[in-house]
Specification:
Elements: E1 3-8, E2 13-20, H1 22-39, H2 52-80, E3 87-93, E4 110-118, E5 132-138, H3 142-155, E6 158-161, E7 171-180, E8 183-184, E9 190-196, H4 202-209, E10 216-220, H5 230-237, H6 242-247, E11 254-266, H7 272-279, H8 287-298, H9 300-322, H10 330-340, H11 345-350, H12 352-372, H13 378-391, H14 401-413, H15 416-438, E12 440-446, H16 448-469, H17 474-480
Parallel strand pairs: 5-12
Antiparallel strand pairs: 1-2, 2-4, 3-4, 6-11, 7-8, 7-9, 7-11, 10-11
């Protein structure tokens, strides 16, 4: 087994020395040569009779390199990914590293040296209520609650027949005939349609509100409703079919109609029966309780936004509070960036402080995950994936969707990168609620507009940092660890 020794240069930098001895690989090397000998068909030699010396010359250097490199990588991986390891980044060859000359005719021990960063030793400050953060609270205006109450009452209301005393929000059913010179046109167009009084042009509205059921009214059908285009009138009032429109069917503008029916919506009363129908039996028993439920539901989206802002503020405050106690091996990290992020290294190095803070936050999170014992189960990932998929459908199941959604979740679970992203989101969500309980929260009343502006600022800031760091994001750093 290769021998690995760690030499600490200081508190933040170390060199890993690994010796792969001849005894670690010689037997495997000879076995592989024998396998090649037994299988290879080489011109000039009978199968199985090719001399080992010839095979060494042809395949030996590549075979030896692969065996030694494989042993080296396995030992490095065990060292760096060990449960108690405290490394940053990945091992990179030391600057005095020289290419290895694999001599198949003189097997020997090989020594490799790698630079590695060491995570700083620190205790997280700002826990147990020591840190104070603002939690934005949007007050739902009473007029919005009133609007929802009115909508519910109308949805559960009853439509009744009306004969006279017509009101603006009543719905008329009109049976209309095309006119010619003020009288019904022979073989003229006939149509039946419904229209609500509030949609009528002002002059028309005044006339209709003075009528009663079975009265006769005359009007220009293209000027009956407010803000309507001719195509709308043809489709919804004249009831032209697609074929009629394609054939260029035309009709006059003047019509006469009898008021066949007038319907009025009578909003439902806020009774216990209605409360039970809306929310379940005995869930609420008063209008004020209903208003509170509505107020809470209206505030859900704002609460999610407020929590996002709070998490950002907690992160920034913890970073600021702990940064001085979290020095990083800057020189090593910059070399690692040059080696590991070659395409984006210039951009990352020019914005190194963002990269360093991302790494510090990753270290803080790692300690917090252990402190709270946080972990993510497969079922939680599946539920989160399902929630994400359901979001594409407005968050509601429709008949027959169950199998489709399950298949989409199964497909998502086969995508390792997507699973890791979802797991990271679930862990971050768990961490947020743990941290929220640790903070001293100051409720700050704000408006929806102010909250949305703050969220836009955060999104703009995150986008700018992401563009500067490219693939070297917080997730990338966590994976490297």
């Amino acid at each position: 087994m290769p021998n690995i020794v760690r030499e600490d240069i200081n508190n933040l930098n170390a060199v890993l020395k690994i010796v792969v001895s001849k005894n670690d690989y010689e037997a495997a090397f000879n076995d592989e040569l024998k396998k090649i000998k037994n299988k290879a068909s080489i011109k000039g030699f009978r199968k199985g009779k090719t001399p080992i010396s010839f095979l060494k010359k042809m395949y030996g250097k590549g075979l030896l390199s692969d065996l030694v490199t494989d042993l080296l990588q396995k030992e490095l991986s065990k060292e760096v990914n060990g449960e108690d390891s405290n490394y940053l980044g990945r091992p990179i060859p030391t600057q005095d590293h020289r290419p290895v000359d694999f001599n198949v005719n003189n097997l020997s021990d090989y020594e490799f040296k790698f630079e590695i960063g060491i995570a700083p030793d620190f205790e997280i400050k700002g826990m147990g209520g020591d840190l104070s953060c603002d939690l934005y609270k949007v007050l739902v205006p009473e007029e919005k609650v009133d609007e929802q109450i009115d909508i519910l009452k109308k949805q559960k209301g009853e439509r009744i027949d009306v004969d006279d005393n017509i009101q603006e929000n009543d719905v008329f059913t009109l049976k209309a005939k095309e006119l010619e010179n003020g009288t019904p046109k022979e073989n003229g167009w006939e149509t039946t349609f419904s229209i609500i009084g509030s949609r009528l042009e002002d002059g028309m509205k005044e006339m209709f509100l003075s009528k009663k059921k079975d009265d006769i009214v005359q009007f220009n059908i293209f000027n009956l409703e407010k803000d309507t285009e001719p195509d709308y009138v043809k489709k919804y009032l004249l009831n032209f079919t697609e074929a009629d429109i394609e054939e260029g069917t035309e009709t006059g503008e003047e019509y006469e109609a009898s008021i066949e029916e007038v319907k009025r919506l009578v909003p439902a009363e806020l009774t216990q029966e209605l409360f039970d129908e809306l929310l379940g039996k005995d869930e609420i028993s008063s209008e004020e309780e209903l208003r509170e439920r509505i107020r809470k539901n209206l505030g859900v989206a704002d609460e999610t936004t407020a929590n996002t802002i709070l998490f950002r503020d907690i992160k920034n405050n913890l970073l600021e509070l702990n940064k001085a106690e979290m020095p990083l091996p800057d020189d090593y990290l910059k070399r690692w960036i040059e080696v590991g992020f070659s395409k984006e290294s210039d951009s990352i190095l020019n914005n190194f402080e963002y990269f360093a803070d991302d790494m510090r936050w990753s270290l803080i999170k790692g300690k917090l995950y252990k402190k709270y014992g946080l972990k993510v189960e497969e079922e939680e990932i599946r539920q989160a994936a399902e929630g994400k998929i359901m979001g594409y459908f407005g968050g509601q199941f429709y008949p027959g969707m169950e199998d489709m959604v399950k298949n989409l979740v199964d497909k998502t679970m086969e995508n390792k990168e997507e699973v890791e992203r979802i797991a990271s989101d679930v862990m971050s969500n768990k961490l947020f609620f743990e941290l929220k309980n640790e903070m001293t929260l100051n409720e700050v009343e704000t408006t929806v507009e102010e909250l949305e502006n703050k969220m836009r600022e955060i999104e703009t800031e995150n986008k700018a940092i992401s563009e500067k760091l490219g693939s070297a994001t917080d997730t990338e750093i966590e994976e490297e660890e």
